[in-house]
Design brief:
Number of strands: 10
Order of helices and strands: EEEHEHEHEHEEEHHEH
Shape: globular
Low-confidence stretches: none
Structural class: alpha/beta
Largest sheet: 8 strands, mixed
CATH topology: Spore Coat Polysaccharide Biosynthesis Protein SpsA, Chain A
Radius of gyration: 15 Å
């Protein structure tokens, strides 16, 4: 079983408003991410909310999927690691890996997610981490085997899962993809303007 953890709890300080709710191609950025997960081979989706949680939840009321579980992170001001921890604690027993996605990467389609899952399942068992690469540049999302779960639960601050990749470089399988969406996230009004 592969679980996805969508990190959507942040304050979007550089954007100045909740970027999870910004519109792109008729939907919010977060909705694009969730729709891609629903259309992928992911078995379980954990959506971690924090800042503006109720407004974001209301924006998703029409979303019908029994695979989505919403988790609230009251400690979202402590950084991305606190949201990742909340998501990890909500993993379904039996999950073999967790895919960490950012709520501001609407260009990640189900085909990229499915390639990462296939890579994880077909890889040498020593490779417990899979990430996409575009023209030699590593990107997101990252798929991490549960053998790193205890390590991930100890992360602090705003690093997300990056420290696990730094600590285990030989365990990483890189999957070349043909879309630069794996390199792009939307943090500032200027980046949002480029997207739209």
């Amino acid at each position: 079983m592969i679980s996805a953890i969508v990190l959507a709890a942040g304050e979007s300080r550089r954007m100045g408003r909740p970027k999870q709710m910004l519109a792109w191609q008729g939907k919010t950025l977060l909705r694009h991410v969730l729709d891609s997960l629903i259309d992928s081979a992911v078995d379980d989706i954990i959506l971690v909310l924090g800042h503006e949680a109720e407004a974001i939840r209301k924006s998703l009321t029409d979303l019908q999927s029994s695979r989505i579980k919403v988790v609230i992170n009251p400690d979202y001001k402590r950084g991305m690691a606190s949201s990742l921890r909340r998501g990890l604690l909500a993993l379904v027993p039996g999950s073999e890996a967790f895919l960490v996605l950012l709520a501001d990467q609407p260009g990640i389609g189900p085909e990229i997610i499915d390639r990462l899952i296939r890579g994880f399942r077909e890889a040498d068992p020593k490779r417990g981490i899979v990430r996409p690469v575009y023209r030699g540049r590593p990107g997101h999302p990252v798929l991490i085997g549960v053998r790193y779960l205890q390590e991930a639960l100890q992360l602090q601050g705003d690093v997300g899962a990056r420290q696990i990749l730094i600590d285990h470089p030989v365990d990483i399988l890189e999957i070349e993809v043909d879309r630069d969406a794996v390199l792009k996230d939307i943090d500032t009004p200027e980046e949002y303007q480029k997207l739209i």
